Amino acid sequence: MSEPAPNVSVVKELGPAGILALAWTVFPPLGSVVLYVYMNTTGEWLRGHEAAGIVLYIAGFAFLAGLGLLPTYASAILGGWAFGFSAGFPAAMGGFALGALIGYGVGKMVSGDLVVRMVDRRPKVRAVCGALVGGGAGKTFGIVTLLRVPPNSPFALTNLALASVKVPLWTYLGATLVGMAPRTAAMVWIGGELQGLLAEDAAKAEKPTWLIVGGIVAVVAVALVIGSLANRALNRMSQPS
Is the pTM of this model over 0.70? Predict the structure, then answer.
């Protein structure tokens, strides 16, 4: 799930916000590689700390995702791997909420008014942003929700963009949680299933391997379909009225 690299001229025009956008494009894929290598070790360590492990997971998720160092899908998979779905899903959503707040604060601080001025110089971009923040609270909530639904939607870059164009904080946070809940549930469930599949006693597991693999494929397919539908709906809603 690679993220599109920002245009070089746009990076220069945005100054610090452009540099941050470039960093938030490069770092998450690298962070995911490190996490996948140490997934089992990290999961066992968190699981061994019981309730404290959940708190540490939420804090680490918020910090790493909010600062654009780790993609959220990898963090959500870790939640399922370490705690299973029943505990991993609410923990991942807590990490999302705090990470979104951190990302919004960083994005707003770094971007200042540079992004707004750049948007004003580009009529097409201005029209889309006008649909996002100028069409009423309900429309803004709907657009932000749809932005978050696709499984390949870049968390850190979206935080930066929404903070830069000054989407109201509580609309931003509420829509983020609603939009990211389905894909988070899918990734947490997959993490739990993978942990069971790769465990040493997998041969003694209640579910056969084919059922676990088939379930994962089905969940990914459903997530992709939902993301495609969300993108289509987003294209319609983001049109200026």
Answer: yes
Nearest to 80 by CA among 179, 194, 180, 177: 194
Q: pLDDT digit string (tens) for 27-46? A: 888 888 888 889 989 999 99
Give the separation between CA 81 and CA 150, rounded to whole angstroms: 22
Does residue 41 come out as left (phi exceeding 0), alpha (psi in the -120 to 50 range) or beta? alpha
Contact 165, 133 (CB under 8 A): yes
Among residues 30, 41, 28, 34, which one has the least CA distance to residue 82? 41
DSSP code string of 111-131: HTTHHHHHHHT-HHHHHHHHH
DSSP alpha helices (H): ranges in the chain?
Answer: 8-14, 16-37, 39-48, 50-66, 72-111, 114-120, 123-133, 137-148, 155-164, 169-198, 209-237
